[in-house]
Amino acid sequence: LIVFRLPRSRSIIKIIESNTYKHKKKMSIPFTIKLLPSRSANLGILQLNNPSALNALTLDMVRSLNHILPQWQSEKSLRATLMIGSNECRRPAFCSGGDVRAVYDAGIQRTNGEKHGWGKKGLATADFFREEYTLNHRIATQSTTKPQVSLWDGIVMGGGVGLSIHGKYRIATENTLFAMPETGIGLFPDVGGMYWLSRLKGGLGKYIALTGCRLKADDLLYAGIATHFVPSNKLEDLKAALVEATDSTEEGDCVASVLMSFHEKPSLSASFLEKHRTNIDANFGKDKSSVEEIIESLKSEGENKFGQETISSLSKMSPTSLKVTLEGVKRGASLPNIAEVLKMEYRMSQGFMRAANSDFYEGIRALLVDKDRNPKWNPAMLEEVTDDMVESFFRELGDENELILEEDEGTEGEQSKL
Question: How many Å apart are CA 79 and CA 248, to the nearest integer?
């Protein structure tokens, strides 16, 4: 791809597809203007370019990334990958999440007797999650000597977390707003969330997963979710330094020292997670095995502001999502690697796609379709969500419909960087 940037006054980027990018057998090469790949020296740059949707991740973008990343990883001259968001968004954003509206549209229509929720290829309710999770695994198992650097300068949510958190370096700025808000839309914190959330210290993982809390740079550094902090006004200098570093002839990770030279330490005393760590561990720790136990524990704190606000947050979430998420976090903690977790998550995702009246479709209706922000969860109460109902989200899909990753086909990869 040859990339030409025109004057900013026109805010246009033209992409010219070179003849060398066409396969001899005329295979369809996934390409979208919403992803702009380029290269500077030996640094591969991937710019998410969907500004009207705060760089939300579409299926076309997923397919393009799944095509480009293996090629870049196999190029001996490429030393690192930089993933950034378009700076044309109405507010700073890395990636606001996956394109769940497209999944909703495909699942709610159910034309021609389509059987959703069982991993069938060709249905958007299966294809999106399968191909997105394949991308998450690809990023997680990239070579550490060709690291991915992601610049979290703005909103980082859902699918945007999956694009970056499994990479080696995640750079927060003062603009970073991070969240996994899926329990509020009738889903669960996926894209590998059941892997990394279950491995955070104390009760942090359960707290972040269930409440969908918004986190800033100091919280992310405190929890070990972000690796570095760089002020946004120094990002252009950082990019230039990364380009220069990839010209180095030294073997191994060529960007680590550059990132440390730009890293600054914000005051962790401002971290919400740090301030309330005792409360979080007491109410969301390993000894709390059910959502009901967590809520009872929070109620026992009486007039404590943290307890009251957390109960209020949980009361707005889908009861089904809360219980399935907690079970997923518990199971994810015992699985050996990111691949096994993603396979489990794929089954979970299909459970939420299965019924046309599931909480996922209701959650998206309330947030993105009718926008009344008043979902009618079914069941509406935690006690109505039975163990059998939760177990159904972990049901096997059948060999032909399960998530198949490269390691299942004999391709070896490293473990997740987290």
Answer: 9
Among 85, 97, 117, 159, the active-site one is 159
- Among candidate residues 127, 182, 281, 359, the one labeled active-site is 182
Lookup: tokens for 214: 């918004």
How do the pLDDT tens digits run along the chain, 418 residues long? 434 343 333 333 333 333 333 444 445 677 899 999 999 999 999 999 999 999 999 999 999 999 999 999 999 999 999 999 999 999 999 999 999 999 999 999 887 778 999 999 999 999 999 999 999 999 999 998 999 999 999 999 999 999 999 999 999 999 999 999 999 999 999 999 999 999 999 999 999 999 999 999 999 999 999 999 999 999 999 999 999 999 988 888 999 999 999 999 876 668 999 999 999 999 999 999 999 999 999 999 888 999 999 999 999 999 999 999 999 999 999 999 999 999 999 999 999 999 999 999 999 999 999 999 999 999 999 999 999 999 999 999 998 999 999 765 444 444 556 6
Contact 157, 180 (CB under 8 A): yes
As a whole number of angstroms, the distance between CA 206 and CA 224 comes to 15
Q: Catalytic residue, from 98, 193, 203, 212: name it.
A: 98
Q: For residue 192, indicate whether it is catalytic.
A: no
Q: What is the CA radius of gyration of the chain?
A: 21
Quick check: helix, strand or coil at residue 215? strand
- Give backbone dihedrals phi and psi of 16, rounded to 5 degrees, phi first: -105, 125
Is 309 labeled as catalytic in the residue annotation?
no
Q: Is 203 noted as a catalytic residue in this protein?
A: no
Place of tokens 């307890």: 307
- The reply to whether 182 belongs to the active site is yes
Q: What is the pTM of this model?
A: 0.91
Which candidate in 190, 219, 345, 362 is catalytic? 190
